[in-house]
User: Fold Alpha-1,4 glucan phosphorylase from Paracoccus versutus.
Amino acid sequence: MARDDMPQSDFRDAILWHLAYTLGKDPDHAQVFDWRLALSHAVRDRIVDRWMAATRATYRADAKRVYYLSMEFLIGRLLQDNIVNLQLADEAQAAVESFGLDYAGLLLDEPDAALGNGGLGRLAACFMESLATLGCPAYGYGIRYEHGLFRQSFAEGRQVEAPEDWLEQPFVWQFERPEARFTLGFGGRVATRDGRAVWEPESFVQAEAFDTPVIGWRGAWANTLRLWAGRAVDPFDLDRFNAGDFAAAVEAEALARTISRVLYPEDSTEKGKRLRLTQEYFFSAASIRDILRRFEADHADLRLLPQKVAIQLNDTHPAIAGPELVRILHDERGLPFDEAVGITRGCVNYTNHTLLPEALESWGEGLFADLLPRHLQIIDRIDEADAKAHPDRRNTARGDGKVRMGELSFILSNRVNGVSALHTGLMKTTVFADQHRIWPDRIVNQTNGVTPRRWLLGCNPRLSRLIAQTIGDGWVGDLEQLHALEPHVADAGWLDAFAAVKAANKADLCDWIAREHGVALNPQALFDVQIKRIHEYKRQHLNILEAIALWQEMRENPSADWTARVKIFGGKAAPGYFFAKDIIRLINDVAAVINADAATNEKLQILYLPNYNVTLAERLIPAADLSEQISTAGKEASGTGNMKFALNGAPTIGTLDGANVEIRELVGAENFFLFGLTAEEAEARRAVPDHAARAIAADPRLTRAVEAIRSGTFSPGEPDRYANIVENLTRADYFLVASDFADYWRAQREVDFAYANRTEWTRMAALNVARSGWFSSDRTIRGYMQDIWNAKSLLGQE
Ligand code: RUG
Assistant:
């Protein structure tokens, strides 16, 4: 094949062409890595035309565009996702295998783009895919971190963090846009000229765009994920270099790149430092300029902005986008202040993801004034006007020397949404009660969802095949069709096939764990999985306490008919969150002792898999029997892992928290293992003096489990290792681990009992699949389009 023969249709030829002419590799010497890149290029070629057609259609229709601003996009690997959505899987596999290569291995060679911490970032990635699937013209805006979430390993059970290097290899999916750059100012002062405020920043950096196309199901539509990277305005100082000061010559570039260097390893906890606020302004301001540039290319009247632009703030991280838009409209375009605020409010909406007070961002006004002096004035003016209009308002964006981003986002938004019914209800009665009283129509609910392309079709091919054989493949684009599986659940033959899928997925997982981690698991055991960020409110320590109590009881009563269990944990702790890191170490220590106990290890094994990420989730979820969603009620805004497990046939053991409530309603209370205090009861329990000590004293199992930790059973020679955890459990216990323990134990024994009847269990698992269709992110995005953005699909017009 010659260079000019760039193949259009034959996939095999396209791969060979890219191997030669894009990568410069001879097939005889190509490594898995080269083949993977060649395959990626061949797939990318199939995306580009559709991507451009979608962009052209949006311009033609002068359609309203949605702009999803998010500090995090946890996109994971993209090759398989793109192949699945383009329905190229069979062709790609055949082509790859014709070269004598392992297809699955090739897909797994791609590093995870871990540009997010957890649920919030993964939600943004699911939303981007659903927006494309639904043909809604949209852009995702974020930061192109050079280092995504840190790589986790364990040393003597402790979490060790290493930098993550996803950009070490070429990232085939992105297109650099050196022409799309904006210069952004920081610091300085605000001058007054001709009676108008003029911001005179002290320093400047550039934001440069990198675009990744996001293709929807069946390749019908593609949108853009635009990530910004920091660059210096003058990257190289030749005079300094010639003077021999080589480091100083590139200092400006090093500083500018710092902005997009690392993802903050925080989730649900505030990390209010200068760099973080700089990052937030950097990507929000670049995005606002890009939005205005696109709008102004075709429209002269800025008052039309709300008809053409919907901006969604994913959490408060991009909240500064609101004041930035007001600033540009007023200071730079000359609109009256109130009109600028009105237009901004017409465009901006805000999604809240947490009620934890420490996770609601606020900044000291000193820092804010230093970095963004004009924005502070604008925020003050809006807040004062608001206070005048509503003198009885208590929660304002300013006060106590702080800038409160939740309040700021609220007052500058058209709609504010929570992410599950319970969470939205609690927003109205707790953190935003004051605002809700004044603006009763502003808060709406949009329960989260997950994309079925990645979280069923892509990650669980066996189950997807069985579903397709049973009800056809319409469910991939319309997940509610899974309901059609329900009648088959009564069919013993079908249930056997369903059980065989789970067994095969578990066998695959066991093989992988044996290969990668040298641990042999009992595939007959119940695979009980808790994977998520490590946080006190998520209560991994409740899970491990139950494991300790179970182990103690098994040792005491070895001849009882115990249901064999493998408890699998995965998740990272923020590096500065020491309590969470203690929990990790405790789980690893407990695992070491229990796994070494020959008296019980056929019945109980504990495994903490390091470096939990999207790829590991894709492996574990299809093989899970039981989904642990055990947060303290009222603390998990929604959860999305809970939906993925249910969709893949793992019933939940969980509290009435976040979207668990809706999962239970939909799959049926009899197919869900409920335990624990409700959000209201939890609040009341906290007021009971010594609630933790009382709960422990009332439960001999819990007493014994805590005592084992306290006495050093799992930290021989160092009984104090977990003094902090013991102290917390027995005294403060804000997250009510002790209070919920007894009921959790009861629910776990119900699980044991139910799992022992394998046919009944399989029925329950299958019903979880059949009734989880509502949790598609397509449904969620339709809700946003209708209730929040007033945006239309352009499918069919490309
Ligand atoms: O903790 C929440 C999850 O409950 C939720 O499912 C997810 C997506 O809505 O967002 C998570 N979250 C919240 N991540 N960071 C925060 C706080 O900023």
The chain is about 45% helix and 15% strand.
